[in-house]
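Aim 2 progress update. The chain analyzed this quarter is reproduced below.
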Amino acid sequence: MTPWPYLDVHQSRTHEPTPYEYKLAATLEEVFTKEGHELADVVRGLNSRQVHAPDGAPWTEDTFRAEMHRLGA
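Predicted structure tokens:
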């Protein structure tokens, strides 16, 4: 019997992450560690590392927000 409360770290996951999602997550961790947590820092960090938005364009604050919403973050 599993003790309560039980937390499954992937409880909201609907699918295995794609290679794009893994790359984005790893790059975000690096940006948060080295450049900051503000939205402008994140967008600048992703673009400087050439990790582009799903359509291949550079990130903007609006496209980053939309992608995080789509991914459920």
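The longest helix spans residues 19-34. The helical segments are 19-34, 39-48, 61-71. These observations will guide the mutagenesis experiments scheduled for the next reporting period.
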